[in-house]
Design goal:
This protein is an all-alpha fold. Strands 1-2 form a two-stranded antiparallel ribbon.
Length: 225
């Protein structure tokens, strides 16, 4: 895979939200306003990029049996740093994102890229992968939030949108509206990609400690068996 492909992979083909269906909880929770979605996307991209780079740097130094605890410590550190930066320089956004900002530390997108990409690739490729995945996550959140805010509140980034401001549909800013928009966008991405977006069976599970348990790789039989 070329570096350009690595960078662009997360936008459509392996979009973490609309294709891989990861990070759905924060994606739907904060996507009632475009500004909140943009803030969450940028914060997640920061954490994803930082953790991918450090994990790629230390991939040969971290023992395999303790790699997950190490990943947790690194990711939690970057998530805490991101929360502190947002609190210091964008306090209203910090209040709007609430608990979902520190919960970036347990975002499955970040763990997935650490386990499936950063631990196997160079620093540059890992950074490009993180930026691409972060951009795809941010783009998905921004599109979902824009649709929900315009139709549900009649505004976009707080700016009143003619016609919609007087004829908004409140259901769009509620949970059911979020799931409807999410489902329609997933169908649209599948249509655009011609059904060729990555599927679970296409993912490389080699090296995953849980591969045998989920049936991706046959367990190794002992000689005594």
């Amino acid at each position: 895979m070329s570096r350009l492909s690595t960078l662009l992979n997360g936008l459509i083909k392996q979009n973490p939200v609309l294709v891989l269906v990861l990070g759905i909880c924060p994606a739907l929770a904060v996507s009632t306003q475009a500004l909140n979605a943009l803030g969450m996307g940028l914060a997640t991209t920061f954490v994803l990029t930082g953790s991918n780079i450090v994990i790629a740097l230390l991939r040969k130094a971290i023992p395999d049996r303790v790699r997950l605890p190490c990943y947790i410590v690194l990711i939690a550190g970057f998530a805490t740093l991101a929360a502190m930066i947002v609190e210091a320089y964008a306090y209203p956004l910090y209040l709007s994102l609430g608990i979902y900002l520190p919960l970036i530390a347990v975002n499955c997108i970040i763990f997935a890229r650490a386990e499936m990409f950063a631990k196997k690739n160079t620093v540059i490729n890992s950074a490009l992968d993180a930026i691409g995945m972060g951009a795809g996550f941010t783009l998905a959140l921004l599109v979902i939030a824009s649709i929900r805010e315009i139709f549900g509140s009649g505004t976009w980034f707080g700016i009143k949108v003619p016609l919609f401001i007087d004829h908004n549909i409140e259901a769009f800013v509620l949970a059911p509206g979020g799931f409807v928009v999410f489902g329609l966008l997933m169908a649209l991405v599948n249509k655009i990609s011609g059904g060729k977006a990555v599927k679970v069976n296409d993912l490389d599970c080699t090296g995953c400690s849980y591969a045998a348990a989920c049936g991706k790789i046959a367990p190794v039989k002992k000689e005594s068996d």
